[in-house]
Amino acid sequence: MKVIILLETALKAISKNSRRSLLTMLGLIIGTAAVITIVSVGRGYEKYQTSQLLPHSDGDTIQTTISFSPTDSSFEDTNLAYFSSVDMDMIKQIEEVVDVGYEEEDHDDMYRSQAVKFQEYQQSTKMQLLGSNGKQVSYGRTITKEDIINQNKVVVISDDIAKQVDETIENVIGQSLEIGAETFLVVGVYGASISETFQMQIPTTSYEYYFGNSKSEKMAVTISNQFSSSMVGKQIVELLNKQGSMRSLGTYSNSSSAALVDSLSSMFQSLTLLISFVGGISLFISGVGVMNMIYTSVSERTKEIGIRRAMGATERTIQMQFLFEGLTLTFIGGMIGYVIGLLLAKIISLIMSFDFIPDLFTAAIAIAISVLIGLIFSYFPSKSATEKDIVELVK
User: What is the dihedral of CA 234, 237, 243, 248, to 10 degrees?
Assistant: First the structure.
C-alpha cells in the first residue's frame, strides 16, 4: 500500500474519532510543549544573563578578562604595556581561544600616569582621561566637548595640587604646567574626593595625540562557548604566570564573571534535564493512551479488516495501516506541542523582557521521541489485527 494512501486512511480514522484522538494526543502535546518551553526560555534567559555579566559576549562565544597586578606600585608610572604581543601570540595558540585583544575601556573610566611639573609640585601624577564633560569645578571651568574635539591642551587639577602651588587657589587658573614634555593650560580646579586616586583631568584625545594611545591594563580573551570559560581562563593565567613577559614584576589573574556564567549554564542544563524527564514521563503515559486507542480502533473495525483480508490484503498491509495511524497521531501531537511550546515561550519572554531562543535540535528530538513512542505502542495493537482468522473477522 502506498504511503499516501496510508496517510489518507490514517487521517480519516483520526478525524472520524476526533474527540478521542485529541484526548489521546493530550499527553503528547503537554510533554512536548513543556520541553520546548523550558528549553527555549532557559536558553534565552541564559543568554540574557550572560550579556549582563559579560557585555562583550555573544551566543557563540564568551569573553573573559585577564588582568595583571604589578608587585611594585611604581610600575604604573613607567607606562609600560601590561601585555606584550608575545603574550597574545602565546595565548592564541590555545585551542579553545578564538581571539585575543586589549579590553576596550570606558572613555570616562580611563586613567594614566605621567610626570607633572607645576612650580614646586613635581611628581608622577595619576590623571583621568575624559571622553565627555568633566567634573564640576570650584574655580574656572570644566573640560568641554570642544576641548575633546579640538584636542586642546587643557587640564583641570584638584584643589590638593592647587594648594601646593598657591594658597589662593583661583590664582592657578590660566597658569601653565608641564605633563611629560608638553605644556598644558590649567582651566579649572575641582574639589578632590578622599576616595579618588587621580589628581587631574585632561581630554582623552589630547592625551592620545601627545603621548600616544597607552595600552589597556586588561586583556580580553574570546573563548568558544563549547568550552568552560573559567577553566580556559585558569589555563591562561597559569601559562602567563610561568611564561608571561611581566611575570617577574607581578601576577596575572582572571578577573571576569566567566565562572559565574559557567555555573549559570550548568544550572539551566540541569533544569532542562529535569523538565525533559518530566516531559518524557508524560510522553510515555501518552504512549499507553495511543496503544489503547489503536486496540479500540482494531476492535471497532473488525469487519473492515476481514473484508480487506478476504479481498487479498496481506497481513503486512493490515499491520501497516494501523501502525501508520498511530504514527500519524503521535506526529500531529508532537507538532501541536511544539507550536504551543513556542507560543508559551514567547509569552513568558515578553513578560520577562528578554528574547526566547527556539532550539530546533531539541524540537526535533522531542518530535522524534513522540513518533518513536507511536511506533512502539502501535506495534502490538496493529500486530493483533493480523492474528485473527479471516472467517471470524467476517462473521
Answer: -140
Q: In this structure, what C-alpha cell is assigned to residue 287?
A: 504512549
- pLDDT digits 0-9 by tens, 246-292: 888 888 887 655 566 666 667 777 776 776 677 667 677 777 777 77
d(CA 279, CA 33): 8
Question: Which strand ranges, in their side-by-side order, compose the sheet holding 97-102?
Answer: 97-102, 218-224, 61-70, 250-254
Residue 327 corresponds to which cell in the numbers above?
504514527
Q: Which of 376, 375, 341 is nearest to 30 (CA)?
A: 341
Any idea what DSSP says for residue 312? T
218 CB burial (10 A radius; 0-12, 13-18, 19+): middle
Domain residue ranges of the chain, discontinuous segments joined by +:
3-50+262-393, 55-104+216-256, 110-211
Fold of 55-104+216-256: Alpha-Beta Plaits (3.30.70)
The string of pLDDT tens digits covering residues 10-33 is 677 777 777 777 877 787 788 778
DSSP result, 135-182: PPPSEE----HHHHHTT--EEEEEHHHHHHH-SSGGGGTT-EEEETTE
24 in Cβ contact with 370 (< 8 Å)? no
Alpha helices in 222-314 (DSSP H): 229-243, 258-300, 302-310
**For residues 39 and 41, what is the distance between their CA atoms, to the nearest angstrom?**
6
Distance, CA of 123 to CA of 141 (rounded, Å): 24
Q: Model's pTM, two decimal places?
A: 0.51
Nearest to 355 by CA among 140, 42, 126: 42
- For 348-388, the pLDDT digits (tens) are 888 877 777 776 776 677 777 777 777 777 777 667 666 65
Span between the terminal Cα atoms of the chain, in Å: 25
Contact 41, 348 (CB under 8 A): yes
For 212, phi and psi rounded to 5 degrees?
A: 85, 160
C-alpha cell at 167: 594658597
